[in-house]
Amino acid sequence: MSGSCSFETERLICRSFRYSDAEDMLRNWASDPDIQTEYGEPVYSSISQVRELLREYTSGEKSRYRWAVIEKASGENIGQIAFCKIWDEIHTAEIEYCIGKRFWGRGYAGEALSALILYTFENTDIVRLEAYHRAENIKSGRVLEKSEMHKTDTVQRFVREGITPRGEVCYCIEKNKIMKGAVSMGELHIIDHPLVQHKISLLRDKNTGTKEFRELVSEIAMFICYEATRDLPLKEIEMETPLAVAKTKIISGRKLAFIPILRAGLGMIEGVTTLVPAAKIGHIGIFRDPDTKEPIKYYSKLPEDISERDAIIVDPMLATGNSAVAAITELKSLGVKHIKFMCIICSPEGVEAIRSAHPDVEIYAGVMDQGLNEDQYIIPGVGDAGDRIFGTK
Ligand code: URA
User: Fold this and answer.
1) What's the CA-to-centroid distance between 319 and ligand 1, angstroms?
2) What is the pLDDT of residues 295-329, one digit of tens each?
3) Biggest alpha carbon distance in the chain?
4) How far apart, in Å, are the Cα atoms of 45 and each of 36, 48, 116?
């Protein structure tokens, strides 16, 4: 799929840009400061400038996933819709669009957006689409919601740039939410709470010593665990207070097990068991064969009733993802049905590894870093988390 493939709705054709679009573009949207500044584009004042832009829109990277929106009734180019960012490794793209003011109020933006979402999920391996708008732009929010996009804490663009959305409202839609039979894709939850972000910065500092590093890992693990346990089922009970009988809720049903991957995962156990003291702890030890680079399991000691528990695997660094994938495989082979993976820092490569091998597993992380270096360390990361927790280097 690319912008050269067209798709249609009842009233619109979305097709690749043509040089003949220039006049419509200038008249309908490219010269309008309100529209152009809304999505961070320059305002064009002449046909020659728009033709210059069309050079980019008709060849090269910017043309790949960009569609001119044509009103069938008039044949005019009334706007555009595009993927302004694509992260192939996590099958995610960000959508931007604009519709000329003269054509507002007719539902065209939503019509084009809904069609693009469906078209993308049917024709590509993208499984998640994202978008955001400034808080003041309420109309955009309505368009996104009408297209079944839902609010999310943040979007990849901000995650990658280390930005916490302030004035922006973030949305996403996942393939499995709208297409029956699509593989359910576990979400990546980035816990962008200021306290978590602050503590991760302290972890990164090469001057942070073993004692403080260990305490920080434990505290961050507790905060991330708070989010990872947000969906624990509750049941209503009656409890007598000194004054009356209260109808109130307690956690019920499924029991939890935390599974640290040895050895760095051990550093997160104090934090997570502070929140869920009744959870059982299993241990999985995995090392990388220096010759084959394959993950080798050297230790596994899990609660006897592990198949009846929900498991949360903990490891501070999700780097290549090989150990995480092996640990998830081990738990699944023992009949565990609900597995989450919790880390402090993840790499795009690690997230992709889990998503490819175990797309049902949700990942909870404090931050996603740039990627791996040639020694498979996360950059910028924190260095060797195990060594820093245990003071072995
Ligand atoms: N394990 C670590 O401890 N650090 C990394 O950067 C990657 C894996």
Assistant:
1) 6
2) 899 999 999 999 999 999 999 999 999 999 999 99
3) 79
4) 12, 9, 29
* Active-site residue, selected from the candidate residues 164, 387, 388, 392: 387
Residues facing 12 on adjacent strands: 71
Q: If one looks up domain 194-390 in CATH, what number appears?
A: 3.40.50.2020
Q: What are phi and psi of 264, to 5 degrees?
A: -65, -30
Report how far residue 366's alpha carbon sits from residue 156's, in angstroms, rounded to the nearest whole number: 13
Q: Give the C-alpha distances (Å, rounded to integers) separating 214 from 217, 281, 321.
A: 5, 19, 22
Active site residue 58: no
Class of CATH domain 7-184: alpha beta
Query: What is the rounded distance in angstroms from the CA atom of residue 44 to the CA atom of residue 80?
Result: 15
CA–CA dist 85, 317 (Å, integer): 26
* pTM exceeds 0.70 for this model: no
Give Cα 332 to chain centroid, integer Å: 24
Q: Phi and psi (nearest 5°) for 340?
A: -120, 155
Q: Whose CA is nearest to atom 5 of ligand 1?
A: 377
- Concerning whether 392 is annotated as a catalytic residue, the answer is no
CB-CB neighbours of 294 under 10 Å: 10
HSE-CB at 89 with a 13 A cutoff on CA atoms is 12
240: which 2 tokens?
């007598």
Give the DSSP letter of residue 5. S
Rounded CA gap, 380 and 368, in Å? 10
Confidence of residue 43 (pLDDT cuts 50, 70, 90): very high
Annotated domain spans of the chain = 7-184, 194-390
Q: Which residues contact 106 (CB under 8 A, 6 or more apart)?
A: 11
Encode pLDDT of 327-365 as tens digits: 999 999 999 999 999 999 999 889 888 988 998 899 999
Beta bridge partners of residue 94, listed in sequence order: 85, 130
Concerning whether 210 is annotated as a catalytic residue, the answer is no
Establish whether residue 386 lines the binding site of ligand 1, counting it when its CB lies within 6 angstroms of any ligand atom: yes
Q: How far is the CA of 229 from the centre of ligand 1 (A)?
A: 25
From the list 157, 160, 288, 360, the catalytic residue is 288
Q: Please tell me the distance from the alpha carbon of residue 115 to that of residue 104, in angstroms, as a whole number.
A: 18
Name 107's Cβ contacts closer than 8 Å, sequence gap at least 6. 146
**Catalytic site includes residue 289:** no
